[in-house]
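Mods, move this if it's the wrong board.
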Amino acid sequence: MRMLGLPRKSIEEHREILDHLRRNDAEKTRDALKNHRQRAAKELLGILERFGLAQL
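Not the wrong board. Structure tokens:
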């Protein structure tokens, strides 16, 4: 299993999370973290399913 290219969306989301942290905006930080985790989990599950590893 290889990742093709940089995880651009995750990098963008991490930068957004850091920006909210630097501004001490707890609500936006929390929302950005939640959105990132949900999107990344959905993406990862799709990858695992494609490789027949969904039971992990």
